[in-house]
């Protein structure tokens, strides 16, 4: 049975049905959301007292579901490459152990695609929080961006770059923040090639991420940190780097001069003009107080 719905020739990705069992262990409860490359579910871990977990399923746009299986729109070689990259993402996440990083508990292939299992965070994304409550004052923003920066430092200390840091990839609840979704992660100081498996977020990616082939460094993630800080104090997404390259001016919100300077430096268009490391970014925030 083909569970794909077609609307004007466009396939609509349907989630797995409630009660579906994955890996003979995880029972799907409901879908939590869709992204460009997958679907995230709430599930119960039957092997661990029915604890709630989040499961990410690789399900790219233009793919279809036949029964429980995902059928990719690409040839077998490209599909295999997508699955391998997805599993590599999970492996990278399992290597980072920090209270500010969503913990990956398991990963596996099934149904013609791949999955990874994460701790379930009952909270809101930073994007949803700001959109509901409005911009933060300087003190709140500095406290929160420090927590995000400390999580990013833990990632960098493992020799990994996140690559897609943005407000919708930061979860918040009364226990603090959790960084998630390493969908564009890569090893430090490696050649980055824009390809089907990599994610570029229009308003939060550094300008060098848009080139076909370049060296990606920690400064690329630091640019994204600056963008998140901009979003927290303004309530608006920053102007995309490519638009800034064309001459559109970045209008920094009317916050204190030191905080404006931190945002401006972190979001410099040239990597060498940004903070060289997360530690340097954190020191700049400390000097603000």
UniProtKB/TrEMBL annotation:
Lineage top rank: taxon: Bacteria
Xref: InterPro entries: Atg1-like (IPR045269), Kinase-like_dom_sf (IPR011009), Prot_kinase_dom (IPR000719), Protein_kinase_ATP_BS (IPR017441), Ser/Thr_kinase_AS (IPR008271)
SMART domains linked to this entry: S_TKc (SM00220)
Keywords, ordered alphabetically: ATP-binding, Nucleotide-binding
Coiled coil, from the record: none
Annotated ATP binding sites: 56
Ranges where the Protein kinase domain occurs: 26-289
GO cellular component terms listed in the entry, alphabetical order: cytoplasm
Gene Ontology MF annotations: ATP binding; protein serine/threonine kinase activity
Entry-linked PANTHER family: SERINE/THREONINE-PROTEIN KINASE UNC-51-RELATED (PTHR24348)
Protein known as: Protein kinase domain-containing protein
């Amino acid at each position: 049975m083909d569970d794909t719905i077609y609307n004007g020739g466009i396939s609509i990705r349907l989630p797995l049905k409630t009660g579906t069992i994955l890996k003979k262990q995880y029972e799907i409860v409901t879908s939590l959301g869709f992204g460009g490359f997958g679907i995230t579910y709430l599930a119960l871990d039957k092997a661990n007292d029915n604890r709630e977990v989040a499961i990410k399923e690789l399900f790219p746009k233009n793919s279809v579901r036949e029964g429980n299986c995902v059928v990719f729109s690409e040839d077998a070689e490209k599909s295999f490459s997508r699955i391998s990259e997805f599993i590599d993402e999970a492996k990278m996440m399992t290597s980072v152990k920090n209270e500010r990083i969503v913990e990956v508990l398991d990963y596996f292939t099934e149904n013609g695609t791949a999955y990874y299992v994460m701790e379930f965070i009952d909270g809101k994304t930073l994007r949803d929080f700001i959109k509901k409550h409005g911009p933060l004052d300087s003190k709140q923003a500095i406290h929160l961006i420090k927590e995000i920066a400390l999580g990013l430092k833990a990632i960098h200390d493992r020799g990994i770059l996140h690559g897609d840091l943005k407000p919708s990839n930061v979860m918040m609840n009364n226990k603090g923040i959790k960084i998630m979704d390493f969908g564009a992660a890569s090893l430090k100081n490696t050649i980055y090639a824009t390809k089907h498996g990599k994610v570029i977020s229009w308003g939060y990616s550094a300008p060098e991420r848009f080139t076909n082939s370049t060296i990606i460094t920690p400064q690329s993630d630091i640019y994204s940190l600056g963008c998140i800080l901009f979003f927290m104090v303004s309530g608006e997404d920053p102007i995309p780097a490519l638009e800034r390259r064309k001459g559109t001016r970045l209008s920094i919100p009317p916050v204190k001069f030191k905080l404006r300077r931190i945002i401006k430096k972190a979001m410099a268009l040239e990597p060498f003009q940004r903070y060289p490391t997360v530690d340097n970014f954190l020191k700049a925030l400390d000097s603000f107080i």
